[in-house]
Amino acid sequence: MKLVKLSALLLLTGSLVACTTTDRLANVGKAPVLTAIEDPTTLAGYQPVRMPMPEAIADTYQANSLYRTSARGFFKDERAHRIGDILTIVVTINDSAQIDNVTNSSRSATNSAGMGGILGTAIKDVSAGAIDPSAAVDFTSGMANKGAGSVNRSESLETSVAAVVTQILPNGNLVIEGRQEVRVNFEVRDLIVTGIVRPSDIRANNTIPSAKIAEARISYGGRGQITDVQQPRYGQQVMDAILPF
To answer: What is the mean pLDDT of residues 96-100?
Structure first.
């Protein structure tokens, strides 16, 4: 049974390596291909966002009045508020964390018991003096534990990306998604930002800081020759996954 599993694993690994090798050989000397512009709602895995919604309030207005309860402002608002509108997200991440923990614990116990009288004398006679009846039973136990851990992390990212309104929730909040690809020589940098924003948090210049995005998902990475060199080979990744030590 183990031999069958090992053979299947080796076959799968060989197939992956063959496909990867073929793709790499086909792209020798070529720059990474940029992703085509597509409607985010048609991509595989896209799911509309569902969130708790407040009770709907009927739109009311007074006779001979230009104001209505659902209006965002008395004058024309140029900020993004409809599906397909574009707004700029200012991504600012400056996080740092330092944690240092040390734990020490120890415990020791000693228990002894002796026997006297006729029973003690009998034990001494039978063992020819090898066992002392006053300490016939002796238990000693001890435990010690020491642990130490530390975290020193610092992350900083400042950039901006234009996002598209993909959905309007029943309470008026906007679901946005922005993708940006920048190719420099043979390396592509990818930036993806998705989340939910309140229209009132959008600034007058049609920008919004990333700290105002609810359920924010920010991905910043790359692909290309440099990234390939930094990644371990598939064989090493498979061995790291299956080896128990």
So the answer is: 85
* Model confidence band, residue 211 (pLDDT cutoffs 50, 70, 90): very high
Question: Which helix (H) or strand (E) segment is 18 a member of?
Answer: helix 2-26
Strands 214-224, 207-209: parallel, antiparallel or unpaired by DSSP? unpaired
Per residue, what are the HEC states of 154-194?
EEEEEEEEEEEEEEECCCCCEEEEEEEEEEECCEEEEEEEE
- Could you tell me the two tokens for 39? 């409607």
Task: Find out whether 88 and 206 touch, Cβ atoms under 8 Å.
Answer: yes
Mean pLDDT of 14-34: 69
- Calpha distance 179→165 (Å, rounded): 12
The DSSP line for 99-133 is EEEEEEEEEEEEEEE---HHHHHHHHHHTTTSS-G
Indicate the helix (H) or strand (E) that contains 222.
Answer: strand 214-224
Give the span between the Cα atoms of 125 and 127, in whole angstroms: 6
pLDDT value at residue 95: 80
Give me the pLDDT at residue 101, please.
84
Structure token digits, residue 157: 């990212």
How far is CA 36 from each of CA 120, 126, 179, 195, 198, rounded to the nearest angstrom? 93, 93, 11, 22, 29
pLDDT at residue 15 tops 80 = no
Nearest to 234 by CA among 10, 33, 29: 10
Q: What is the mean pLDDT of residues 44-70?
A: 74
